[in-house]
Give the backbone structure.
Amino acid sequence: MKITKTTWISDKELSEMFSSAYWNDEESEKKKIWGMWETKFDELESRFLKKGLYQQFNSIVKDQNIKLDGLNVTSLGAGICMLEAMIAKKNISLNKIYNVELSKHRIFNIAPNIFEKYSVPKDKIELCLGSFLDLKLDDNSQDLIIMSQAFHHCSEPEKLLIELKRVLNRNGKIIIVGEHFFSKYEIFKKFIKHFPKYLINYNGIRSRSSIIPTWRCLFPIDQLKGDHHYNQKQYSSMFKNAGLKSKRWVFKDYMNQAFYLSLE
């Protein structure tokens, strides 16, 4: 039996997605640790665990008393599926994991080998090349949606949340881990550095900011990787406007934050 691979998006649509060029640069990716998974798997696994994403996911699952037995799970921005493979190995009774990713070589070439490394049954896995905003999943069909270092890559978060609500069943949950977290000191430091930049009009900053900087000015969008940086109020507002209840965790040891969302 082979792992099911599904293409939800055309090559043209994929090329037009924000930051797609970066994530689909296969030659560049070969030089990164996940591109060398065959010869450096132990190092890859060690680096992944040091990020704390697996630990944070388990912490939220335990805190919210989530049982994964028999669940249909969708992971968005699954990448090479390290987190998903670890989850599936530990929870062998879950029903199925749909792994959605916009990087073709990560999801189709590397991810199958990662699942094999963790001895995950192939019938529990589906690898999907596609967009967060157009999930080819039935309404009310998913029990749990995971986004690991992924939510901040979506250029239309409000539209994404609507799509997630569509595919979630009535008791469905969303776990978001690996979101950027900035300490008060880091925010203050950027705030202070803004003023001399504004005074000398560094890189034409006056055309996009007033003397009192906005959050977007302090933490601009990464046009290459597609990272968007939100503050706590912005996250809360997005979730509330989408009709989702939220609980937030800050993992200072890893300098990131996480959210647990449920339908109101």
About this structure: The chain has a mean pLDDT of 95. The first helix runs from residue 11 to 16.
